[in-house]
Amino acid sequence: MLVRQRIIMEGTTEKIVGMAQIRSFLVALSQEVNMRPLSKPFAYPAEEMGFGGWIHWITSGCHFYSYPTSPPLFTVDAYTCKPFDPKKAAEFTKKYFNARELVWKEV
Fold it and tell me: What is the domain extent for residue 34?
């Protein structure tokens, strides 16, 4: 039986999340929700629109985007074929970025 689970998170921070922080977060989130990466995380600049990144897990993966809005905004979209605790993922993400605000929804 195939498990399908997804969480979408959106938060605001004091400064925009850059590429190095995206990569380190994706590794840390993988450990927090017990997902095994297939490769190192990837991050890239999206010109003046912000930054993006992703990590491929054996059981699916996670995308991350940050935007230079006021206040700076980030979104996380994690999808898996292995169960995880979405509340734990959201609490970890809020703490990791010291987010001003974080909203999330399991889809």
Answer: 5-97
